[in-house]
Design goal:
The chain has 17 helices and 22 strands. By secondary structure, it is of the alpha+beta class. It has 3 domains: 2-42 and 243-315 and 429-494, FAD/NAD(P)-binding domain (3-Layer(bba) Sandwich); 104-219, protoporphyrinogen ix oxidase, domain 3 (Orthogonal Bundle), CATH 1.10.3110.10; 317-426, Protoporphyrinogen oxidase, mitochondrial, domain 2 (Polyamine Oxidase, Chain A, domain 2), CATH 3.90.660. The longest helix is centred in the middle third of the chain and has 22 residues, at 199-220. It binds flavin-adenine dinucleotide (FAD).
């Protein structure tokens, strides 16, 4: 079987790795991985400078999603996995240029502790009163999808959307709570609302159940068992996420990798797939499309215009990361925690800033302060055209306004600066996303040998992309394809 993997980001690399495993396991499979740019890894890219690790794209993965750490262990990077420094974990929200810590007991958006919620200056008295009344919220009769903002506003009011939901979600998706789908992005909260009416009651019940489970696990653990390594909420690699890219690259046959090879289009020829770049055109038995959905849509136009259209509709946001390294002596002491999030209502360019040296403790960072600002998001495409100098100046100006000039001293010059731009790289799970993806997946299955992977479908995190990439490859070498169902044909004819 000959398989073309299109897109050499982490999803495509994970697929290639899985095919290598199959090959070593005796499966007769050959593959090529087509990558438009000059390197593998996609948005995963880190730089080593003066003993520091600077992440240009993502900086870590969520520990509770296991696929990334499992892959790291499988390829010999287990010893290099490092947890976030959760002893110092605290996130602040910028409100009128002041940094306000998220109150203790806040579980994502839901307050579970009375006193910290009552005392926090993050919310007005009116919102706090509304939060208390949320305990009496009735279940929602409809199960139609709605935006995260609509769900949160119904329960807690607009201020919680503006000061909490929006900045938290734009920190993850670079998106907008008014467009993101509640059913996709906050499925547990939608479930809680359906079961309990009040999301606070739902969260408290889930919390009690978790505490019981943990207590039971503790008593069941055999005595004398070696304690597990501490887990942080986030996990990364000592050498940065590029370490994962490099280790995977070593396991992928170099002869199968085609860099600087953007695929222009796909076509069907009998049962085969024709993959065309500007240089060549080749036939394969199957294709794993591990690019953004909009790129996949462009390539599939001649194969299935309906599928191509649905893929192209999935919105994407762009982002910019600006890394600034200072000597500790040149700045005043930073506030506690991992950094801060900036709500849209503050009308700033920055969406967030991470105090990298605090979030992950790495050798080589002693005496240095690494600040990573995150800019962009939906409807801010124009920012990508600004020069590096202009972006750095904006970040420094906003840091001085938010942190104060006693911390961000005007005299302080960064020792290192790096700007990275990620154009239309982050899929946005808009209202209706679940149904759209269900349709897309079903439709893709109707084309024998076609698989989709990447951040547009079932999770935008690194672990999700690895899981989907590996799954796509595994399915191709094990499962027969489904044929086009009558209802799909009807939909095509209806257009
Ligand atoms: C700035 C930023 C910060 C993030 N932070 C985190 C984080 O901390 N934790 C986390 O879990 N996730 C994070 N994410 C999300 C996560 O990193 C991504 O969703 C994930 O890495 C996407 O992987 P991918 O392989 O699907 O896509 P990509 O990395 O976008 O790779 C797709 C590849 O396809 C190639 N390609 C496109 N078109 C073609 C074509 N026609 N022919 C051939 N090749 C093509 C592209 O060049 C690219 O290399 C972040 C994302 C960004 C942008």
């Amino acid at each position: 079987m000959r398989i073309a993997i299109i897109g050499g980001g982490i999803a495509g690399m994970a697929a290639a790795y899985e095919l290598e495993l199959a090959r070593h396991g005796g499966v007769s499979v050959q593959y090529s991985i087509y990558e438009a740019s000059s390197r593998l890894g996609g948005v995963l890219s880190s730089e080593h400078a003066g003993g520091l690790v600077l992440e240009h794209g993502p900086d870590s993965f969520l520990t509770e999603k296991p696929a990334a750490a499992e892959l790291c262990r499988e390829i010999g990077l287990g010893e290099d996995l490092i947890p976030s420094n959760d002893g110092e974990r605290q996130t602040c929200i910028v409100v009128n240029d002041r940094l306000i810590p998220l109150p203790d007991g806040l579980m994502f958006l839901i307050p579970t502790k009375l006193i910290p919620t009552a005392l926090t200056p993050l919310f007005s008295l009116k919102t706090k009163f509304r939060m208390a009344l949320e305990l009496l919220h009735p279940p929602r009769p409809s199960d139609e999808d709605e935006s995260v903002a609509a769900l949160v506003e119904r329960h807690f009011g607009k201020e919680v959307v503006d000061r909490l939901a929006d900045p938290l979600l734009s920190g993850i998706y670079g998106g907008d709570a008014r467009h993101l789908s509640a059913r996709t992005v906050l499925p547990k909260m939608v479930e809680m609302e359906m079961m309990y009416g009040s999301m606070t009651r739902g969260m408290l019940a889930a919390h009690r159940a978790m505490r019981k489970r943990m207590a039971a696990q503790k008593t069941a653990a055999p005595k004398g068992e070696t304690p597990k390594k501490p887990r942080g909420i986030f996990t990364t690699l000592r050498g940065g996420l590029q370490q994962l890219v490099d280790a995977l690259e070593q396991r992928i046959d170099a002869k199968c990798v085609r860099l600087n090879s953007p695929v222009a289009k796909l076509a069907r020829e009998s049962d085969a797939w024709r993959v065309t770049t500007s240089e060549a055109s080749e036939l394969y038995d199957a294709v794993i499309l591990a690019t953004t959905a909009w790129a996949a849509g462009t390539m599939l136009k001649d194969v299935d215009i309906d599928l191509a259209d649905e893929l192209s509709i999935i919105p994407y946001s762009s982002s910019i990361t600006v890394n600034l390294v200072f000597d500790e002596k040149d700045l005043g002491p930073l506030p506690k925690g991992f950094g801060f999030l900036v709500p849209q209502v503050e009308e700033r360019a920055m969406l967030a800033c991470t105090f990298v040296h605090r979030k992950f403790v790495r050798e080589g960072a002693a005496g240095k302060v690494v600040l990573r600002a995150f800019l962009g998001g939906m409807h801010k495409e124009a920012m990508l055209n600004e020069t590096d100098e202009a972006l750095v100046a904006t970040v420094r100006e906003e840091l001085a306004e938010i942190l104060g000039e006693e911390i961000m001293r005007p005299s302080a010059k960064p020792e290192l600066v790096h700007v990275a731009r990620w154009r239309r790289a982050m899929a946005q799970y808009a209202v209706g996303h679940k149904d759209r993806v269900k349709w897309i997946c079903k439709r893709a299955r109707s084309h024998s040998g076609l698989k989709l992977a990447g951040n547009a479908y079932d999770g935008i995190g690194i672990s999700d992309c690895i899981r989907l990439g590996r799954q796509a490859a595994r399915e191709l070498v094990t499962e027969p394809a489904e044929k086009l169902k009558p209802e799909d044909r009807e939909r095509t004819q209806a257009r």
